[in-house]
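Recall that a protein's primary structure is simply its ordered list of amino acids. Everything else, from secondary elements to tertiary packing, is in principle encoded there. The following example makes that idea concrete.
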Amino acid sequence: MLTQLATVKNRLAISDLDPAFDVLLAAAIRAASARFDLECRRIFARTADLEYEFPAGDTEILVPGYPIESITRFEVKTAEAEGWAVQSDIGHLVRRKCVISLERPLGGRRSQARVIYTGGYVLPGSVPTAGQTLLPGELENATVEQVAFWFQNRDRLGLSRSWDYHATYRQFGALDLLPGVEKVLARYRRV
């Protein structure tokens, strides 16, 4: 999750001792985190042993979970019956912590390759060690604001028009991502 429950509860001025909305808020945080991954076409959370498959003829690999922390191994498969074969001594360069450049292709155009690696951001509540990158504060803040907005407007979701007492007219557009959140996500979107 791209933020912690305590951070969202603090933003909403809900006491840490009040568990009434904990399950709902935790689900909203998980949903916002997953949505941000989908919007940006990448995986934000640090994950060990991520597997990413790509055509064996490619030499520029754009992995979904970055920044790349370490590469465990490369594997190639030429037929289902044979399975994955570990490749050794593969010359590669990690550029900008998100692209793996291979010296040469791992196989032909009919072969499939994969890389097993560790990548992504260390999430709030954990302390990064050497070589790890903490989730940028603006991404955590965007998550907090999106969840808080959803929570504060959850009873009006889907409402398109409402005539309240004394002729007050309400029409809610799509309560999707907040404009400020969209701007933050645009900076982290995988192109």
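Strands lie at 47-55, 60-62, 68-77, 85-87, 92-95, 99-102, 112-119, 162-164, 168-170. The first helix runs from residue 5 to 11.
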